[in-house]
Amino acid sequence: MNYIRESFARQKAMALIGASLSVVSAGKSEVSLPYRDELTQQKGFVHGGIIGMIADTACGYAAYSLMPASASLVTVEYKINILAPARGALVARGEVVKAGRTLTVARAEVYAQDGKHIATMQQTLMMLPDTADTPDP
Amino acid sequence: MNYIRESFARQKAMALIGASLSVVSAGKSEVSLPYRDELTQQKGFVHGGIIGMIADTACGYAAYSLMPASASLVTVEYKINILAPARGALVARGEVVKAGRTLTVARAEVYAQDGKHIATMQQTLMMLPDTADTPDP
Amino acid sequence: MNYIRESFARQKAMALIGASLSVVSAGKSEVSLPYRDELTQQKGFVHGGIIGMIADTACGYAAYSLMPASASLVTVEYKINILAPARGALVARGEVVKAGRTLTVARAEVYAQDGKHIATMQQTLMMLPDTADTPDP
Amino acid sequence: MNYIRESFARQKAMALIGASLSVVSAGKSEVSLPYRDELTQQKGFVHGGIIGMIADTACGYAAYSLMPASASLVTVEYKINILAPARGALVARGEVVKAGRTLTVARAEVYAQDGKHIATMQQTLMMLPDTADTPDP
Questions:
Q1: Candidate from D13, D41, D79 with C-beta closest to C38
Q2: Are A82 and B77 in contact (CB under 8 A)?
Q3: B72/A82 Cβ within 8 A
Q4: What is the mean pLDDT of chain A?
């Protein structure tokens, strides 16, 4: 799964928010996010868009883990329900629901450290075969 | 609309990504995001989760602009389609579709500076009447 | 769970498509749909909107099973991914993800008789306390 | 647009609920649904799944109208917000947001006869080039 970890490491947006790829296996991935004041919305909770970012990324690498390293993938769409406010470290667990030839459907659950269920996401991704997963030269 | 601008100013996550509330009027809001390398995913495009963050926030303040300043609001859920990759400044325009007593439905369109349509979001929000929009003491 | 079965029995749209409430327990429900030519789209597969109907209903009764019989509920929104075409009997299994005071989030999986995963839905519902679940007089 | 009308005419599910394709032009379509008791849920309103069916179909034919007649298309996913209960005739207006090479994003608005906004849908579809839009022999 080296190509997955290398791809994640190229995501500067993950570095910006302080997220790391804590686990990756076939069809699954886990993104961890320590709490920081910089991640909050107006009431001091972690911003819903930040929760979306880690869930989006967890779905993406769950999907990518079932694709060849020679492929790249794009997020087609995602839908997230925020179930509870969060003011602490979070983990997003992504999992593939259906891996098709072109499209993959994945899901992510976001939890707080005390096990509280914070959010649930359903996502569609598209595989681009024989496409570099690195910036164009 | 001072309570809107003050609420946005409390969103540390918006400062982290460099977004600003460029416009707000009754039922509408606009969030602007200059391009920075720190916002990118593995291929050098703006991260889909970052696009989601500004669309989420644009929907939220469009909705909040039709609520009393004594209320707070929470994002129930959102769904976003990414229509094209983006490697430049973005603007997210939020607009209320239906303002109900408890729930509001809003939409946001994200555009690049050349007018390219980058993403479209549909969102549900819930009003919490007589609730401070500031962190609990 | 008599109030659930009575509510389902009032759904004339379920009778129209031939669906039945095969199972209901706390936080779960199952809607069964025998195959009929009348349910198909242009290629002879079960219409995606029909698949949505049974998933929507399965989510709804899973949610309603955790509410008092004196309440009614409305569907706020749902999102469904169609994973595979279907040309046979279907079952939609609904399950509550989070039951809140006002809002409930539920999910449904739709399967074919051979166990094939046909669709997955994520749904938001709102409880209306002290509201009749019957037509207004 | 004959291939569109012929495709719609093969949708037995549309005949079952009594819906018709009232308008179709490049990138747009309109599905009309007269009110019938058989379409209702437990409170006598049009079933949310039925509303989803006509919105789904309106999106689909809006998308199909921009594709060659030699192609077929499948619904990848859709998300719908129900904005108000409905107890009368409905019309679903579908429109293409972005027509891509493989994927198309469309939207539909559902209105009651008095102009009330009943629902809004965002949908993703996939084109299958050189694929018959008729049942397999």
A1: D13
A2: yes
A3: no
A4: 97
